[in-house]
Every structure is written in C-alpha cells, then in structure tokens.
C-alpha cells in the first residue's frame, strides 16, 4: 500500500509518514488486544524463568552433586587406588548405604570428577603428541574426533554392562554408577600415555600390561559395590554369579581399553 | 567638493559600527517601541556578569556532562582495560567486578582471539566459539555441583565473564605467534600462558567461592580449558 503523499515542494516528502498514518500507528500500538497478548507473553516468559531457576536449583542440590563432592585428599588416594589397587586389600564394599555418597570419608565410593578430568586429559595429551610430531594437519578436528571416539566407546561399554547386570538379575544399579566405574580407565590411560612420553616408549609393553591388570582388579572389586546384595537371612540363595559378573565386567573393561589404545 | 559617499553610509570614525551598538540577542519590540536587552531579566548581578563576560566563569562551576556510554550504563573502555590488567598482572580485582561482571570485555577478547590468527591465514572462529561454549557449559555444571555443599550457586554470565577475561594471556600468545615460528621457546611460552590464565582465574574463583581444600580441583579443569585454546593457537 503506497503511503499517502502530502502536497509539498520537497520531493522527498514521500519518505515522511503523513499525519493520518501516525494516527493509525498510534491506534495500532495502543490496541488493547495487542497489549493483552504482550502481557500474556511476558507472563509466560516469567513462568518459564521461574521453572528454569527451580529446575537448576533442584538439579544442583540433587544426589548428582554428591558425585562431585571431592577434595584433594580423596583425589590423591583414589589415584593411588586406581594405579595400585593391590595395596588396598580386603572387601571394598561399603558397610552403610550412606557411605556410597561420601567421597571424603570412603575412598571406595564413586565420583564423576576423576573420570571427566581423565577423559579430557587423555584427549588433550593425544592431540598434543600428534601435533608436536606433525602427524596431523588440523588439530581442532583431531581433538573433536578423539573426544567423540572416547565417548562412543564409553557409551557402548556402559550399555553392555547394563545389559549384563539385567541378565544376571540385578536391576538396581544406576547408569551414573556404571558410568563412573567404567570411565576411571581414562586416568590409567592418561598415566600410561605420560609414562610412554617420558620414557620414549622403552617400557611401553610392560607399562601397558600393568595398567590393564590394575584396571581389571579395580573394576572387579569396584563392581561389587554395584552388585545387589541379597539378604543375609537367605544365605542359601546367595548369588553365585556375583564373581562371574564382576569378572566379565573387568574383561569388558580391558577390551575397551585395548580398543581405545588401538583407535587413538 | 562633496565627500565621497560610502555605499554603506557616511562613516564617522568615532562612531561605533551599528551592528555592535546593540546586542544581537536583544529583542526589539516595535509596537511598544522598546528593546529588551540581554540580561534584563536576570536577577542577580553575578549571573549578568557571566552572561557578558564568560571568561570569568570559574572552573568548578562547569556543568557535569555524563557521556552517552555512561548514561546507557555501558562499561567504559577504561574499566575493561583495568579488568584486563588485573588479570594480566594479578592485581586485586575491584569488588564491583566480582559482584557484577560484564560481558563486553570477554566479547572483545574472544573476537580478538579469532581475528589474530587471520593475519597468518588461519580461520578458527568456529572452533574457538564451539569449544569455548562447551567448555563454559561443562565448567558451569562442574563448579555448581562442587560448591553446592556450601549452598552457593554461580550464574552463567559470571562464569563466562571470568573465563573470558582469563583468555587475555592467550590473546597475547596469539599475537606473538604471528611473529614466532615453531620452536621450544614457543612451546614454553604456551605453557606459561596457560598457567598464567589458570592462576589468575582460579584466584578470582577462590575469592568468590571461598573454596577450602579444593582450589587445585577447580584450577585443574580451568588449566585444561585454557590448554585447549593454547593448542588451537599454537598448532593449528
């Protein structure tokens, strides 16, 4: 629709909005229907904001925060446990259910801080080594590809582990516990990588065998935390598949570590 | 002999020019046959003097003019500069920055980090922004989960601001990388810049969150975050 032109000398007057159109615009913006829809939208945005904040607050105060409730001492002891599990003899199971979420009190409890840091450290170490040796041209793409390969292998391992637990009749294990238990291997692999870089791969074979053996023992003993315990009254129905399940999971862990060493 | 007629009229050297006889700002009222002179409606003599002798204006009576940027509550370049200097030289941060950080400085730093490699023919905007975004999200969740025991929470934009200002040493490294080639000196400089960024930002987080026995647990993910940018800057 062409704007109405006011009869003036200025040839550029058609750009100016005529007075009657001004009145039309004022009527449009002062339209009560438009104001009502604007207030409805702002109310919905306010409701969404409130729900978002309540969701964030509930997320950060949920049980997932306990997987990050770590301190310096716990990290050092856990790293020692990961690299030398033979030192810690005896039963690794928790005496009390509350100890499952008490990282600072019990070293055998599960966390997500170490697996996450181990994964990122391994990816960066791999990229750094490849970049220094000029083995790759595009470091950024290599970094992203390495990260996704590790995530894919971890996801497959967690799915297989979950299926194994279901097959053995244990349905109470949570995915977060499985993710935590199965991804501690990244700390071991990072240590192996650093050792190989320092020693110029002289003791690579020995170090690899030791790391895989440590992982197997750690997963074998840690998976007992996830395996459901039967009642002490029903000792005749004691689960005889418990050591078998733990053994299979530890073998699966070694397999996945070997896949990662081959793929990366 | 008649004197030559000046086209502007007969000029009397003693006569002042007409245009200076009356003040041009005087208002002539022909109906009432009067002239309202400038300063007639001014009550005090002091203000009248100021009108006619502006040189007597004292310096402390100048009207305060707020710049448009300050009026719009946009952080001034001086403030951004002071915050970048506090990161680079480990100076004490002003409490205003800790409580209400800004995003204009980090945006400037991130854009510089993307533009500087262009001088060497490298385009890394997508990787810098993508990895920065994911790293920011991971650090947001990690820190909020770790500090939840103390019943504290840190917002999205605050973490983005602190991380953004921490990239200042990386920008410096990116600038020096234009002139330096691959060598052990460059690698050492890269490590120093990563540690530099980590130390300054972890100090900020330690001040805000008051973490006890966890400072290194916060510093390590920050170190990994800045190492990512260092690797992209040095090796890509």
From TrEMBL, chain A:
This is Protein YIF1. GO terms for biological process: endoplasmic reticulum to Golgi vesicle-mediated transport; protein transport. Belongs to the YIF1 family. The chain crosses the membrane at residues 112-132, 152-171, 192-213, 244-263. It comes from Paramecium sonneborni. The keyword Transport applies. GO terms for cellular component: COPII-coated ER to Golgi transport vesicle; endoplasmic reticulum membrane; endoplasmic reticulum-Golgi intermediate compartment; Golgi membrane. InterPro entries: Yif1_fam. Pfam families: YIF1 (PF03878). It is found in: Endoplasmic reticulum membrane; Golgi apparatus membrane. It is a multi-pass membrane protein. Has a role in transport between endoplasmic reticulum and Golgi. Its main location: endoplasmic reticulum. Signal peptide: none annotated. Keywords: Endoplasmic reticulum, Golgi apparatus, Membrane, Protein transport, Transmembrane, Transmembrane helix, Transport. It comes from the Eukaryota.
From TrEMBL, chain B:
Residues 1-21 are annotated as: Disordered. It is found in: Golgi apparatus membrane; Membrane. The chain crosses the membrane at residues 127-147, 159-179, 185-205, 217-235. It holds the Pfam family Yip1. InterPro entries: Yip1/4-like, Yip1_dom. Signal peptide: none annotated. Keywords: Membrane, Transmembrane, Transmembrane helix. GO terms for biological process: endoplasmic reticulum to Golgi vesicle-mediated transport; vesicle fusion with Golgi apparatus. It is a multi-pass membrane protein. Coiled coil: none annotated. GO terms for cellular component: Golgi membrane; trans-Golgi network. Residues 89-232 form the Yip1 domain. Belongs to the YIP1 family. This is Protein YIPF. It comes from Paramecium sonneborni. The lineage of its organism: Eukaryota, Sar, Alveolata, Ciliophora, Intramacronucleata.
